[in-house]
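Appendix C reproduces, verbatim, an entry submitted by the partner laboratory led by Prof. M.T., so that reviewers can inspect both the input and the predicted structure.
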Amino acid sequence: MTTPIPEHPSAPAPDQTVPGVPPELPEPPELPALPELPDDFEENDSYGMEAAFVSDHRRFLPWIAALASRRIPYRVEYDGNRRIILVTRPHARQALAELTVYEQVNENWPRVNQLGDNDDRPLVTDAAFFAIILAGTALAKFHQVVETTSPRHWQELGRNDSALFFHGQWWRAVTSLTLHADAAHLISNLAWGAALGALVASDLGVGAGLFAMLLAGVAGNCMATLLADEGYRSLGASTMVFGILGILCAVRTWDGWRRSRDERHGRLTRLVPWLPILAGAAMFGIYGTAPGTDMLGHACGFVAGIVIGALQPGCRNAYTSRPLQFFLGIAAAAVVVFAWRAALAHG
């Protein structure tokens, strides 16, 4: 028969620890793999540290700001024109995690707005500039032809006349836009039309812009004819010029409102998105109501332009199609040619 040997009184119980001896710690959980940064980040042992190479100057300041915000020590060195962010090896994993999060959060920055145009686009595109110059040259050349042949005859054929318009001569709403009383009248309309038209053609595309401008002028003439007294007559591109102003104001106002609708502003800054249309109304008040001008035609063109411009943002996706832009540009020119052919055939 055996007698169990008692445990030594100084021996610790299984759930006790020996003073001065650290307890055995459990194995730390394995950290999940971090996504990799772009090629700008790479390890380099030649520095004795982890090195984040920044080749894109736009990343340099945001990256060091991200590291500084988490109090991760770093230093900057230069390798030629290349700036290098150096992080000590114990902080390398934390630095990698912070920069990875920064890249993920800002992946789509700068944002492209919903209409598909970037803030870096030029104010006036090359295509819009040359298209407007070509259209203005054609209008000036046509005026020269009119003046060197029989101005009165051309005006009788093409000017806007309410009595003749209601008798079926629809083309006068189009042909009157290409006629001018004199050279001063032509130059004034060319100057304003070229400046505003280049902006509209840049915003909408050349083909869509030209078609929208012509549509605004024709719609303005039709509205003025319907609202005017009997015997109303007019000619000149000024109705279309104020239509272009209305299109531009509506498009820019829509863009400004869309950008700011999700942001919090004070009462004063809430007016900023509406400044384009307010400025357009002010321009109309100064130039569109001058003595001796067709104020009704100008007002109708401006209103028609605002309505047409307000419809354009919904068409922006379709305007990215080059065939559609080409078709609309050709259609605008074809409408003018067809209208004059109808006028000449009737005369």
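The longest helix spans residues 322-346. Additional entries are available on request from the coordinating office.
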